[in-house]
Every structure is written in C-alpha cells, then in structure tokens.
Specification:
The chain is α+β, with helices and mostly antiparallel strands and 426 residues long. It has 14 helices and 25 strands. The strands form seven sheets. The protein has a five-stranded parallel β-sheet. Helix 7 packs antiparallel against helix 8 (157-168). The longest helix is centred in the middle third of the chain and has 21 residues, at 237-257. The mean pLDDT is 95. Its EC number is 6.3.4.13.
Length: 426
C-alpha cells in the first residue's frame, strides 16, 4: 500500500512512523512534510489540493491521511473524493465542528450534548450583558480557526469584555473573531478523547491528557501543547461509558441526521466536573502532541485502521492497543509561543543506553534540513516520547531522551503527567 500524509508537524511524523513499521505499507509520501520526514518517505511540495489529488492519482497512492485542521476545513477531502481517491478525514461540511465554534456549540445544544452555558454573538453589548451574568473566570472564544490560540480565560469581567472587544474589532484574530462565544468556566480536569469514525461506526482510543500551558504547574500562556500522555488513570470504565453514551454516540448520530456523516478522527476536548463529562470543544483531527503518544500504543496496523475508516468498514475491525503507557515531552524553541526564534542546529547524542534506544524515540516537528544538517526552525521543534509499563517509567524514558537532544534556546516542561502520577501515588 502507498500512503500519503498531509501536514508537516510532529503529529504527521508520528503517523508516518506508525506507517513505517506497518508491513502493509510499501511507500510513504508527506505533503509537505518537514526536514526529518525525509527519513521516513518522500516529501511532496504541492500545496494546491487539486494538483495534490492529481499527483496521488498519478503515483497510485492508495490512501491519504490528513493531519491538520486547515486542509480539512478548506475541503481537501471533498476534492480527493471528486477524483475517486480514498482519504481519511471529514468533509468540509463535517469539519465545521472545528472550523466554527458557534456551529459546534449550537450542534451540542440541538442534540442535548453536555457543554458549558454560553452565548454566541457579533454584538459587543450582548457579550457584555452575558459577561455581567457570569462569575469569573470567564471563557471568551473566537468563532474561527486560530491555530489553538483563540480561547481566552479571563480572570475578571473587565478582562473578558476587553477580550471580546479585541476579537470583535478584528484586532485579535482578524475574520476568525468576527463572532465570539462567551461561556461559563467549568472547573474540573481536562481529558482528550479520540474516536476514529466511518460515518456510522466508531472506535474510541485510550484517553489522553494534554498540557496546554507553557510552564510547569500549568502556568504561563496557552500553547499548542507542551506534552501529553496516554492512557490516563483519570478515567474509569464508568466515565468511558458516560462519554460514549452522552457525547460520542449522539454526535455521530446527530451528524448523520444533519446529512453530514462524520468520518475521520473526532477529537473531543472534555472537562470532567464532579465525574460528569462536558464538551469544551471538538477538533476534527488528532491532537498534537496527543497523536505522538497514541500512535506507539496502537497494536492494530495503522494503515488498516485508517483505510477501514475511509472505506466505511470499521465494524469489521477489532482494534487493539499495547498494554503500555506513553509520555511525550515537547521541546520548543527559545521564543515560543511569543514569536519566531533563530534557526539552531539540532545535535542528538548517540544513545548508548540499550533500553532507552528501545523505549524512546523522537517525533520531529518544526525542523528543516539545511545543507544536510537538521535545524530547529519552528515553535514546537520535536517531541521526546517514552514508552513504559507504568506512566512513571514512560516519563523517565521521555525525560532521559530530552537530555540527549541539544539546540540553542531549547525549553520544555519538567512536569508532564504530574496529575497522573499524583493519582497513582494517592
């Protein structure tokens, strides 16, 4: 099988790594890929979706897997299907679950799926009136895609009003903020739940937890994610059942009723409050860095999972996972998430520790190949992933690997999976 992965980050590298180990896969393409995906397959510098679909047809690519949200929201799946190509991901209409937070919240309301109380508006006076009804902290969200940065958790009513005004004026996020959602703050802990769907059937993957804040102790600004681990002990069978019955199943059924069957990955960002799950947001693709810790746990061949989802055959698949834990630690560049950093050569020490070599690996993200050398050129540069029989063991391997990686200005959190370790200790 020939497979193409659309995207250039750590998520796409992790998918490529899983496909590389897959006996069904003979050739992998990345569009556009990064400086390190060249080790796994061929990079394709075609950004136009029509041209990319023609390339896939000419090269006999059997399946395309879409990593990021932007191509999905822009309709890449619809274009590939027009050419009779198999592609894993939701259609443009289905991708509105992430492309428009207002569409998503109204969908949740219509199908009685638990979520925070909210208002959606383009009028500042309406936003301000609702803010006055709430007790801080207060959540303000831009409607459109903002690369994971369109959510403000305001600590006062004044800050919430300033955030709403900044979005509605176009100053904060341009057209993405022309309409906003103001919602009550849910106080609990977050979980990332992923369901692979084929429009009717779905398979729920082990629950993961992401660490959004830049600094230890969940301090500092929100980022695209500074680390993740899976599976998490913060969930039990009872909670899995509530999530499936109240959230995943009604979403898949609701989308079908809307005439927009959901295919691809449904990523539910949940808040668990007093043992009850609430939807914070939907994303229409794997999370990053959650994908980097889920892929190594997948025992079922990745190509089989993606292909059966893309061809409406998920009901014939028994999905299996290794009885292990994975922890991923993001190593970011000096100025992340505030601005760009100078390119810096990446030096990786030779790994002489046999177990570390077997139990840990790197997923490369913001890297470029310059004159045969790998440079850190992005915000989140790479993810060090450790695999273990316990979360602590997996975390130890991940952090041992961070000690082998060097580039100027590197930074990372030192407390990834701290909540899980606290649960295990108690």
């Amino acid at each position: 099988m020939k497979v193409m992965v659309v995207g250039s980050g750590g998520r796409e590298y992790a998918i490529g790594l899983a496909l590389k180990k897959d006996k069904n896969v003979e050739e992998i393409f990345f569009a556009p890929g990064n400086g390190a995906t060249l080790e796994l397959g061929e990079n394709v510098e075609i950004s136009d979706f029509e041209e990319l679909a023609k390339f896939a047809g000419q090269r006999g690519i059997d399946l395309t897997v879409v990593g990021p949200e932007a191509p999905l929201v822009e309709g890449i799946v619809d274009i590939f299907r027009k050419y009779g190509l198999k592609i894993f991901g939701p259609t443009q209409k289905a991708a509105l679950l992430e492309g428009s937070k207002i569409y998503m919240k109204n969908f949740l309301k219509k199908y009685n799926i638990p979520t925070a109380r909210y208002i959606e508006t383009s009028i500042m006076e309406e936003a301000a009136a609702f803010i006055d009804e709430l007790t801080p902290p207060i959540v303000v969200k831009a409607d459109g895609l903002c690369a994971g940065k369109g959510v403000i958790i305001a600590q006062s009513k004044e800050e919430a009003k300033e955030a709403a005004a900044s979005m509605l004026s176009g100053e904060a996020f341009g057209p993405a903020g022309e309409r906003v959602i103001v919602e009550e703050y849910l106080d609990g802990y977050e979980l990332s739940i992923f369901a692979v769907c084929d429009g009717k059937n779905y398979k729920i993957l082990p629950a993961a937890q992401d660490h959004k804040r830049l600094l230890d102790g969940d301090k500092g600004p929100n980022t695209g994610g500074m680390g993740a681990y899976a599976p998490t002990p913060l969930i039990d069978e009872e909670l899995y059942k509530k999530i499936e019955e109240r959230i995943i199943a009604p979403t898949i059924e609701g989308m079908a009723q809307e005439g927009v069957p959901y295919e691809g990955v449904l990523f539910a960002g949940l808040m668990i409050v007093g043992g009850e799950p609430y939807v914070l947001e939907y994303n229409v693709r794997f999370g990053d860095p959650e994908c980097e810790v889920l892929m190594p746990l997948l025992k079922t061949p990745a190509s089989e999972l993606f292909y059966k989802a893309a061809t409406k055959q998920l009901d014939s698949l028994d999905i299996e996972f290794y009885d292990k834990y994975a922890v991923g630690v993001v190593m970011a560049s000096e100025n992340y998430p505030y601005g760009k950093s100078k390119p810096s050569e990446i030096i990786i020490d030779e790994i002489v520790h046999k177990e570390l070599a077997e139990r840990a690996h790197i997923c490369f993200a913001g890297v470029s190949l310059i004159e045969g050398k790998l440079y850190a050129t992005g915000g989140r540069v790479l993810v060090c992933v450790g695999i273990g029989d316990s979360i602590k063991e997996a975390r130890d391997y991940a952090y041992m690997l961070t000690g082998q990686v060097h580039f100027a200005g590197k930074k990372f959190r030192t407390d990834i999976a701290y909540q899980a370790l606290q649960v295990n200790e108690s």
